[in-house]
Structures are given as structure tokens and as C-alpha cells.
Amino acid sequence: MSIKPSSPTPPHLKTFELSILDQLIISPYVPIILYYPNRTSDTIFQALERSVSLKKSLSKTLTQFYPLAGMIKNDLSIDCNDVGANYVLALVHCCLDDFLRDPDHGLINRFLAFEPSFDESSTGARVTNIQVNIFECGGIVIGLCVSHKILDGAALNTFLKGWANMACEAKEVVYPNLTAPTLFPAKSLWLRDTTMFISQSMLKEGKCRTK
User: Does the keyword Transferase apply (predicted)?
Assistant: First the structure.
């Protein structure tokens, strides 16, 4: 399912140029998972109603954060064509409290729209991918995979605050700061390629464990 912006992006904003700072970091999809246990007597049906509200508020939020509703055009820009965020709704046949009490780390990635990796978000891929997981107890887990080409941690926090405000019908409307391409323009990839060559020579592969 695609969640498009509630209002179309103006023609003069259809291409979002990436700043040179966006190119100095690896650009995979950055996953984040948000857990909302059911602390009331709400049922799974009320959780499903909340998922409808999440979709409507996301559509309104994407109007402000219009690059997130686009596709990756190339290593220098985002095509803000209003294709929308990839949105998946999943039902989970267990209780969220039980999962959080003894989490199975092998299952966590199933809360995301796709398996995260260090592969770069490629040309033609959607910038934003969201999966809303509804548990049979009424708990909700929201998994996001957004291209690092456009969002860092601070910008992701701003987007989540804007979405939350819109879902709660708060008076404050959060607007993103999209001035970085003007302040730090990028006309070529030479600096990115040089930085990537240096950083890759310093990285080592090995075994790791998540706890």
C-alpha cells in the first residue's frame, strides 16, 4: 500500500538536491522500531482503528516532509514525485508484553517492511518504508526503514514528532529544515567516493552478537 501526501508537491519542489554532507555517510535504510504496549482495556479492533488514524496522519505529515514521499533518483537527488511511503499492515498472533518480557532478536526484523542491510538504497527505490504491527492484545509496534540519504537521527526525530503531533491533532505543526542542500551544495561525487574509499579500507569484517 502507498500512503501519498495529502496535498501534491509543488512543481518547483519536485527534485530535492542532496547536500554534500548527505554523501559523506553510507546510505542504507536506517531501521527503527517503536513499541507501544496496550496499557488500557483497548481491544485489537481499537488498535486497528488507530492504524487508520496513523495512515491519515502520515499522509498529512508527508505533505510537510515531501522528500520522504518520493523515490531515490540518483546519488545526488531525490525525485519528489509523491509516489508515497510504502506502508504495510501486519497482524501478530501473540501478546506484545510477552514478546517484550523475553524478546526473540531473531524475530525483530519481521516488524520491518524488509530485512535491513548495509546495502545502499538504490536508484528507483522508495525513500520511506513503514510497517505497522498490530498484536492480538491491542499493542502496536511501528517499524520504519527510511533512506539515510535524506534522514539522520535528528531529522528522524523531527519527522516522528511531526507525525505524532498530526496523529494526536496537536496545534503545533512540525516543519522540517530542508536548507542543507543550499548551504552545502553537491555538484559531483568526488568527495563522497574518496571518503568511502578511505572508510572501507579501515573497516574489518567479523562476527557480532546482539543482546
Answer: yes
Confidence of residue 79 (pLDDT cuts 50, 70, 90): very high
Domain spans of the chain, in order of start: 26-171
pLDDT per residue as tens digits for the range 11-26: 999 998 887 777 666 6
pLDDT tens per residue across span 93-122: 989 999 999 888 878 889 999 887 666 567
pLDDT in tens, 171-196: 888 888 888 777 777 776 656 566 55
CATH class of residue range 26-171? alpha beta
